[in-house]
What we know:
Elements: H1 2-62, H2 67-82
Amino acid sequence: xxxxxxxxxxxxxxxxxxxxxxxxxxxxxxxxxxxxxxxxxxxxxxxxxxxxxxxxxxxxxxxxxxxxxxxxxxxxxxxxxxx
Length: 83
């Protein structure tokens, strides 16, 4: 009888541990999905900035921009990267 109670207790502990492991796996999957989504958002911002820089570089080669306008571009890049 005592062995049976001990085995039932062990079984409950094992089941609880398995449920906890399953819960943690689900949480890790959720966090990985969130990180992937954020990574894609960041990459999209980077691509937009690269396209804008390429366009501005193209325009800059056509005509020389005053230093003040070039400084404004750096400020815009910093502001976008913070969002």
